Amino acid sequence: MNRPTHGTLHHVEIWVPDLDRALASLGWLLQTLGYAVSQNWDTGRSWLLGPTYLVLEQSPALTADRYDRRRPGLNHLAFHVEDATTVEKLAVDAAQHGWSLMFPELHPYAGGPQHYAAYLENADGFEVELVAINPHPDR
Q1: What is the DSSP track for 60-126?
Q2: Which 8-state DSSP code applies to residue 42?
Q3: Whole-prediction pTM value?
Q4: What value, to the nearest 5°, has the Cα angle with vertex 111 and ends 106 and 116?
Q5: Is the peptide bond before 108 cis (omega within 30 degrees of 0)?
Q6: pLDDT tens digit string along 14-41?
């Protein structure tokens, strides 16, 4: 494990209404982005990349059955992706894993003209943003 830098994120735990659906969408995405499964138990799983890990858990303490990113709390997670080509490939592949493209009329510049990204939403309403580190690798 890499030594973390002061102030970096330690982990994020996301409670999901249906673990199998979350594994099909979020689990697929995390593994595709290079996260490795770290722990696995009946109601959850965690993935590790460097010193940071993400947890998906279907907790018995849930008070709702659908995530709403417009309520107070976490709106979405954004991940660095190597380049525009990879953003586009992931956006296309994501459709086979329970994701739909948000703001298709503005894609890939929904975040502005200098921000190349795909905004995706899964069946449970969870949003991720895939942001190109180098949107124009030939430049």
Answers
A1: TT-S-SS--TTSSS--EEEEEEEEHHHHHHHHHHHGGGTEEESSTTTTT-TT-TT--EEEEEETTS-
A2: T
A3: 0.91
A4: 85
A5: yes
A6: 999 999 999 999 999 999 999 999 999 9
